From TrEMBL:
Substrate binds at residues 109, 116-119, 193. NCBIfam families: baf. Keywords: ATP-binding, Coenzyme A biosynthesis, Cytoplasm, Kinase, Nucleotide-binding, Potassium, Transferase. GO terms for cellular component: cytoplasm. GO terms for molecular function: ATP binding; pantothenate kinase activity. Pathway: Cofactor biosynthesis; coenzyme A biosynthesis; CoA from (R)-pantothenate: step 1/5. It catalyses: (R)-pantothenate + ATP = (R)-4'-phosphopantothenate + ADP + H(+). One of its GO terms (biological process) is coenzyme A biosynthetic process. This is Type III pantothenate kinase. InterPro entries: ATPase_NBD, Type_III_PanK.
């Protein structure tokens, strides 16, 4: 039996997971990782935090047989990530990029090398779980929305500021708006500044998903499955469910679609 260690370095959080070779990326269960965790991506910049992370990972799991990653947080972060385990120098690190080939899949991106590796790996992860026309929504630092056809074609997508970025940008660029805070009462049209911001930013995110569904239908790629992933997935799902929008039966909150995609790609490249 082999063990694979996978990293997904986003602009806010660094996620990792390790999985044994007895499992498959097409396995539907969410909790398929034998080990997993996350920290702030910024921690990579600190030698102390790097040492803590490396110590924690190397003490909680056996030596992996292969390591693979996606990183959209810049070259320095990649360098710092790859410096974590000097004791495992014989293990080759495999980096998935936006233009990494995957059997049966293709992107219409004009220059696939510019496609975010986390977007491409989430698309691969979604393909492992379902061969239907799918929308992949990764609600993280940015919110990305991508269309994947049942034929394996990525038709492109959108990049929006994520929920926190939207809130922060309103606070930073206006005189009167505070940093909004979500509370249980936020529903429908806002009747306070806080509610108006929270509801407005939710509407921008959910409205973009609705628009993507409409546009995909016009393109003859009617969406049968929506994967909602990332740090804000559950928040958005709650809002979607409470307002009974988008045909909730086809939406699923997925956990670690990027990690799943990197793992699937690694299995084809070792
Ligand atoms: N514990 C948390 N730490 C940081 N961000 C969180 C946390 N919980 C929810 N979030 C939200 O999730 C976003 C980060 O989600 P994530 O999918 O990890 O993003 P990325 O892949 O871009 O690093 C943040 O911008 C924030 O809005
Ligand atoms: C859009 C992103 C910033 C999202 O990053 P994240 O929110 O996951 O940290 C990332 O996928 C990226 O840098 N993409 C490159 C540009 C593109 O995909 O076209």
């Amino acid at each position: 039996m082999s063990l694979y260690l996978i990293f997904d370095v986003g602009n806010t959080r660094l996620k990792w997971a390790a999985v044994e070779s007895t499992k498959q990326p097409s396995d539907q269960q969410k909790k398929l990782w034998d080990y997993s965790g996350s920290i702030n991506t910024q921690s990579l910049q600190s030698p102390e935090h790097r040492a803590e992370l490396a110590d924690y990972i190397s003490k909680t799991l056996p030596k992996p047989d292969a390591i693979a990653f996606s990183c959209v947080a810049g070259k320095e972060a990649i360098h710092q990530l790859q410096s974590l385990f000097p004791q495992w120098q014989d293990i080759q690190w495999k980096q998935l990029s936006g233009d990494s080939a995957f059997d049966g899949m293709r992107t219409l991106y004009q220059d696939p090398s510019k496609l975010g590796s986390d977007r491409w790996s989430a698309i691969i992860g979604a393909r492992c779980l379902s061969k239907t026309n799918s929308l992949i929504v990764n609600a993280g630092t940015a919110t990305t929305i991508d269309v994947l056809g049942s034929n394996g074609m990525h038709y492109g997508g959108w990049i929006l500021p994520g929920l926190s970025l939207m809130h922060q940008s309103l606070e930073a660029n206006t005189a009167q708006l505070p940093l909004a805070a979500r509370d249980a009462s936020t529903q429908g049209f806002g009747t306070s500044t806080n509610e108006a911001i929270i509801g407005g930013c939710d509407a921008a995110q959910i409205g973009a998903i609705q628009y993507a569904l409409d546009l995909a239908k016009q393109m003859n790629v009617p969406i049968e499955k929506i994967w909602l992933d990332g740090g804000n997935a559950k928040t958005l799902m709650n809002q979607i469910q409470q307002a009974n929008l988008l045909g909730t039966e086809k939406i699923e909150v997925s956990e670690g679609l990027v990690l799943r995609g990197v793992w699937a790609w690694l299995l084809k490249n070792i």
